[in-house]
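Lay summary. Proteins are chains of building blocks that fold into shapes, and those shapes determine what they do. In this project we predict the shape from the chain. Here is one chain we studied, written as its sequence of building blocks.
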Amino acid sequence: MTINTNEDDMFTPRMAVVGVGGQGSNLINRLYNYGIKSAATVAINTDIKHLNMINADKKLLIGKEITHGLGAGGFPELAAKCADTSKDMIMDAIRGYDMIFLAAGMGGGTGGGAGPVVARMAKEQGSLVVAFVTYPFSLEGSRKQKADWSLEQLRKNADTTIVVENDRLLSYAPNLPIEKAFELIDNITSNAVKGITDTVTLPSLINLDFADVRTVLQGGGTAVINIGFGSGNDKVERVIRSTITHPLLNVNTENAHSALIHVSGGSSLTIEEATKIGEGVTDGLDPKANVIFGARLSPEMKDQVRVMSIVTGVTPRLGEGVVTSQTAEYNRDFMEGIDRIY
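And here is the predicted shape, written in a compact code that computers can read:
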């Protein structure tokens, strides 16, 4: 496990979070209002009404001559054309960033169609591109077919594609109202993005070196993100258990080759505790896997600890059912952790 605590060896990379489509733009709005300082925010959409509701550093209406600002109507091929015809505008907005997080919902029009095109453009101008996308609920039959096509296109153009499976996330909180369910998905993604950007660009207990981040995420393929929470006297053990029992995608990790671990905790969090947590959540990986690790103190968390792990090179099992063996105790840790942060 690689640990870097030398701030003098670090440079500050330019980072941006780019939301494409309705769901991606909603995430941008949340991050902007949340006060993210370590990355620029860019919202891209074909729907002018929705775009006008979003707060962001930059907002782009693409394909105006094609859709007249009325959206892509759920057609990803049309949205892809909108992005291609707006290439100059998009390239101007994303130029010069070392790392771009691209957020989109798979299964719709603009996110699923324009998202892969924006990823390709970002790669063309030299950015490390990490996509955070959601996969539709099982009841959304036609959207799942579109999502599969969009995911295939996105994997061709992004360095790493992190997929959050909606069904799997909701298995941990089956009684949530649908509006709260989508809010929870946004919370998970925004927390992951902010955690990485802050730890790379801001002074931390244990810094993430951008060169190591690039090594893990460049050409990472499909990735799974795990989130865990713990508090109390046994917070280390609880956060490890919570993390490994709450993967947000059904995957086979046998061929996983790299992992990025980020730990956040209150001012009492020690390096020893953070390191033990990092070792615990990666215990099941191949000993030869490249693991990098960062930790950041957040006084507002008090006695709580939060872990985010991104494991790359996994094989997804989308739509193959949801494992529900998690205990109520750790589901409670998971949901209470989300509530306390947001």
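What the prediction tells us: Confidence is low (pLDDT under 50) at residues 5-9, 322-327.
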